[in-house]
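Quick log. Single chain, no ligands specified.
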Amino acid sequence: MPDADANEPNSLCDLALRKYYGSGTTLDVHEAIRLFKQAAECGSVDAWGHLARVSVKHETGIQVPDSLVQNALAKWKDDVERGDPSAQYYLAWCFESGVGLPKDPAEAIRLYRLSAEQGNALGQSNLGFCYYKGLGVDPDPDKAVQLWRLSSNQGYATAQCNLGTCYANGMVVPKDLGEAVRLFRLGSDQGYASGQYSLGMCYSKGVGVSKDPTEAARLFGLSAAQGNLDAQCQLAWALRNGIGVPQDLRESIRLWKAGVDRGFAPAQCGLGGCYAKGIGVPKKFAKAASLFRLASDQGFSNGHYNLGWCYRRGAGVNKDRTEATRLYKLCADQGFAPGQCTMGVCFEKGVGVPQNSAEAVRYYMLSVDQNYSDGQLRLAKCYHTGVGLARSLEKAVALCRLSALQGNKRALKMLPKVLDEQSRLGWTIRRHKCLSTELGRSRVKVLFLCQARARRDATLPALPTELWLLVLEQISLRDLDLLGLTDVE
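-> predicted structure:
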């Protein structure tokens, strides 16, 4: 591939875009930013637009000369007067983001709408996002999906991924994981970082595709190289545990620290977890608690939960079960399944709150609704013992089985016990039904005689009660009469 003309701004901008997305060349975000800056300084207004958006996204701290900013804004304003949809989009973005202009959501919406009405894919996508979030307009998810579909049909990666998320979650459109994967792949194939991350998550969890940790890690790596913080955290987790990639604790810690440096709450929790367990770094509970607090202060549910764990155990902070419970409730109220389950434990045992079995069951059920294995096990125990609700061995077995299928070791240990109890209960019920008729009563008497004789005579098979019953159920009252067993006492 020939090098771009060092003085030709459009050529430089084109090369920067290819470097940014890894299209036909090696992906290199930092080189792309340098080329955007060079192209902008050579007079490319489009390059300045790309540079502004990329700089904000990656927090590069690049200082663009004010003269260049004003020149770009002046040109866009002139082009907007002529009805240019690209200029309408760029100027709207400046009003939305506050780059070069004071933030003005209403003016951003006006310009996005003008751009979208002319069929500009970027304008359609961003206007859809404003409707989705309620930025400058009343929230309207239906309108958002409509606009994203228009933009997606033009091949715009951001809209494809936004629409894919709608199909993945069943938002406005029927849930369709296959369609979600297709849309994520379209975005990913264009080098779009969010598309690579979303497709990676599908492969990581086996959602809409066969589970493939190696492919997931590859996609996380591509997305992380563009600065996607979510992907960096997923890749750090994979490297820490050797999932889909060889274990590399040093690189895992580096990625989490990069996220912490940018104030990203999931990275703060990830690095805090390493300090709490001494993985890749010395074990330091105080450092872990400090990182968890940073995440909690941002309202991050996992941060609340992990900091609650510290207070509950006195790890890096003074032990305080009341504060632990407060933090658990914060994350539970955010819909965080581990927090919901832990709140259930707090209410069941009266830890930090008054004991309340009904409330414990309510929290367990909330976590079960999210298929959380510990919640399934806890609720199974409630059904087994009749704590907080009516006893049901059948429901206890079903929940315990669901938890065990997810590999929960405690559920795997409990399952044989409840299955055995269910089996014995089934025999008892059948026995009671038998005793309601003359034939049934005779069969049960014969059963006890057979079992007693089997215990005395080693040559007879020691069959389980249920197998004896199955045999005896084939014997009629006439058979028993002929055998002289109907009057057995």
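The two ends are 99 Å apart (CA to CA).
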